[in-house]
Fold this sequence. Notes:
The chain has helices spanning 3-15, 37-40, 44-57, 90-96, 105-127, 136-161, 185-200, 215-230, 239-256, 296-300, 324-333, 372-375, 395-410, 415-427, 438-452, 459-466, 503-508, and strands at 82-83, 281-285, 321-322, 346-351, 358-366, 376-377, 380-381, 390-394, 468-470, 477-479, 484-485, 490-491. The chain is mainly alpha-helical. Among the domains are: 1-20 and 38-172 and 484-521, Serine Threonine Protein Phosphatase 5, Tetratricopeptide repeat (Alpha Horseshoe), CATH 1.25.40; 296-386, no CATH class. The strands form 6 sheets. Strands 1-3 form a two-stranded antiparallel sheet. It has a two-stranded antiparallel sheet with strand order 2-8. The protein is globular, with a radius of gyration of 23 Å.
Amino acid sequence: MKNYIIKTALSILIGSSLFTTGCNKFLEEQDPSNLSPDNYYTLPEHADAAVYAAYARARFIGSGAGIFSANFQMLDAPTGTAVTATAQNSDLNNLLGLVYDGDNLHVRQFWTGAYRVIAQANLALEKIPGINPMDEAQKKRTLGEAAFMRAWAYFYVVRLWGPVPLVTKPQTPASSDFYPNRTSVDSVYNQIVADLKMAEESGLPWMDASGRVGLAAIKTELAKVYLTMAGYPLRKDEYYRLAADKAKEVIDYAKTHTGEINLFETYDQLHSVANNNKIEHLFQVQYLADIEGNPMQSLMLPNNSLAKNISAMGSGVGSSVPSSSFYDSYKKFEPKDKRTDNRQFFFTSYFVDGKGDPFTLDRPYIFKHFDYAAHGVQGTAGTGRSNLNMMNIRYAETLLIYAEAQNQADDNPNADAYDALNRVRARAGLDPLSGLSADAFEQAVWRERWHEFAYEGITWFDMVRLKKVYNEDNNGFDNFEGHINKNSGRALETKHLLFPLPIQEMRNNPNLRPQNDGYGS
Length: 521
């Protein structure tokens, strides 16, 4: 979904008024500029616009959350893998310190952002079937996309807050469930699975370089949902088999379509604008500087305490920085790991103003989201504007979902599971593994997930579903409850398995009460 998609959506909204005037008498006409769901969904293009709007609303993940912070940091801050080089955002500091509550801005905005995606998807699912004339295959595809986006948003919501309102119809103040009650976790997951299965059968291609969702992302998301359902809190062990089988469908297709779905050969390719929505990127949150530029760039640059800028974008913020213990854990236990080599997943030096002489940074910073085109490279000035998408579902995750789920389902890793794990390890320069027990293989996959997917909004959810946390001191895994977050010196508690409901939402809707355990009333 790039600029032509967004601009098309805008032109549809404007142009639709030109098709509603007809030849009726002036006094019988409705104001053509007063668009509403009742008079808008009349053309096939309107279906596309509705789906594009759902994709666009997914950008809430990168939206600002007060000074020097963004919503996506909510998923990294409590993990212990990230710290901040600026202490000016109290909400972020509280997340890092494990003392957050329902007044936290990140918590509130993540809730409202996800439900806005759901609201837009509900509207599309309600209105698109009534558009006539419209090619039935096109209608089915757009409905599938809307169903995916609803499932995508609900998957975040149920993992973060547990029982949540399950709203599947457009709402107005007159709706009978305008103040909805919370729905069981099981019921929410059932809806997520149903939506993803609908998307899976909607006739979408495996990949779509425009940014629209394809089968590879849908099947991987479904595999991830199954894997999560097998863990805490549902503990449905039979879902490991479903997760393995679904991930294997993507892997089998990729084996015969290596130019379409694959791992990138280098980590540079992972954060190249030229590779947006391609190869390893099965699904991304879309950005375009003319509409909304990638928000991660300044947040992850060294802050302005350095003597020199390293980017055409000017000074950075240093709001998301790797914790030293986590950064050190890569090579501490596997010295060959390339991911902490300079300018792989992290960087320790760059160029003055992005294009000049090299200089050393004061500490390692996160590089896996770094946009060369925006910042510049030695000898070439950057544009100062980022069109880089935010990674969300990668083929590397498909591989590791399969490896973990197959081992759990059969209580022994097969050759395909080893191949999936070792492919991710090989790109990192690590030796292949073999001959492990089921338990040892399981932990090897977990370690790979921690190191491969850091700062992608995945680690926190692994901590919750496994009720385990990676220990950087011994390369093993602690129980969730009692694990000491080194950043704050505080221990994770049972209450941290869920986030608090946003206080403002509870004030607006008393039916959300009671608050999640441990966060007061």
